[in-house]
């Protein structure tokens, strides 16, 4: 006959085993109970993923709170916090959830970016901004791939960094990284690209409005310049409305045009990678990533006016949280030590790419607008 002391001891043991599971330590399954219990569909996957996903979401929440109170980029906070919890990705129960956050949650967040964009917004800009954006993005990615080889870096990092600088900062870096070959330094390169592009975007948000004033650009041309050069959407909005509401509107639409380019750029990279892969000679075919299909479908549906504003607002908010959670997961997969081994060359490359795209857009604004 069990005593109260035995009951309390069993309860305490179960509690400590649960806490160990949250810490990422392995927990043995009760043999007798596990065999006779019936599981709901997907319950095993949920049990396997929830510790790592819960940690990533918690980091995202903390990062958002700090970003709101201190005005720093939320992506940067999520990265740094994630990297401090790198030990959770080295062993234990958190690994599957961290992998899920950095891959599946990321792709879902990128797909939802399509809800921001409509065809009328893009076409309303006119021909010059559209051509400028296409030339700027294409030349920046090409320049990145070219200079990466000359600087002793992998060409894939040049494509990754060029896409991040040219399109939409951290979001583009994550999307492009998801279709690039998975080398041993792939995670480190992605983290490095996100950290650098976020820092450069913050610097640009502060300095570029001063540059437009020094160059005596009117509000429309200033909006085109800011939207065509600053990396992240949030910094574009901040810099544009810092000058005037009209400048902010123009900058936002130009930036959305750059976000639209994420679809053809990522698809092209995925196609090229598939053709160059080990199975290319054997007739392997490039497949369209599902998150790009979702991105394109949302752009089309939103352009047709089938999405109400509350729906698009909710999609944008969910997308933002997914990307921050994915960044936290990606951070947990990377150590400070691995990041420091990259050296100064990747940062120098991204600075040069930033200067390049700023020069391309400035020439277009001064002579063709």
Automatic annotation (TrEMBL):
UniProt keyword terms in alphabetical order: Cell membrane, Membrane, Transmembrane, Transmembrane helix
Pfam families: Cons_hypoth698 (PF03601)
Main location: membrane
Compartment list: Cell membrane
Record membrane topology: Multi-pass membrane protein
Highest taxon in the source lineage: Bacteria
Transmembrane segments: 45-64, 70-88, 125-147, 159-179, 191-211, 256-274, 286-306, 348-368
Family assignment from sequence similarity: Belongs to the UPF0324 family.
Name of the protein this chain belongs to: Integral membrane protein (TIGR00698 family)
Organism: Caulobacter rhizosphaerae
């Amino acid at each position: 006959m069990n005593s109260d002391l035995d009951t309390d001891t069993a309860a305490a043991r179960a509690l400590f085993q649960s806490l160990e599971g949250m810490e990422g330590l392995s927990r043995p399954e009760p043999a007798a109970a596990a065999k006779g219990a019936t599981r709901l569909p997907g319950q095993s996957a949920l049990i396997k993923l929830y510790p790592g996903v819960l940690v990533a979401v918690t980091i995202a929440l903390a990062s958002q709170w700090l970003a709101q109170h201190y005005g720093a980029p939320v992506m940067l906070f999520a990265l740094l916090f994630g990297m401090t919890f790198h030990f959770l990705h080295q062993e234990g129960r958190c690994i599957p959830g961290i992998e899920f956050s950095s891959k599946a949650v990321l792709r879902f967040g990128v797909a939802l970016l399509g809800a921001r964009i409509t065809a009328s917004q893009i076409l309303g800009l006119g021909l010059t901004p559209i051509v400028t954006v296409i030339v700027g993005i294409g030349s920046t990615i090409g320049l990145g791939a070219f200079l990466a080889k000359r600087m002793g870096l992998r060409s894939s990092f040049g494509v990754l960094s060029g896409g991040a600088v040219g399109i939409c900062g951290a979001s583009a870096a994550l999307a492009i990284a998801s279709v690039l070959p998975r080398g041993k330094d792939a995670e480190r390169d992605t983290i490095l690209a996100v950290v650098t592009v976020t820092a450069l975007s913050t610097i640009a948000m502060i300095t570029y409005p001063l540059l437009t004033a020094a160059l005596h650009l009117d509000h429309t041309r200033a909006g085109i310049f800011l939207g065509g050069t600053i990396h992240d959407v949030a910094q574009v909005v901040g810099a544009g409305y810092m000058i005037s509401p009209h400048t902010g509107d123009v900058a936002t639409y130009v930036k959305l045009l750059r976000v639209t380019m994420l679809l053809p750029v990522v698809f092209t990279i995925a196609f090229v990678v598939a053709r160059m892969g080990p199975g290319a000679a054997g007739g392997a075919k490039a497949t369209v990533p599902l998150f790009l299909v979702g991105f394109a479908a949302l752009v089309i549906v939103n352009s047709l006016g089938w999405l109400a504003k509350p729906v698009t607002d909710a999609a944008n908010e969910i997308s933002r949280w997914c990307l921050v959670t994915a960044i936290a997961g990606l951070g947990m997969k990377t150590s400070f030590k691995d990041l420091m081994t990259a050296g100064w060359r990747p940062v120098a490359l991204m600075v040069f790419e930033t200067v390049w795209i700023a020069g391309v857009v400035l020439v277009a604004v001064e002579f063709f607008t």
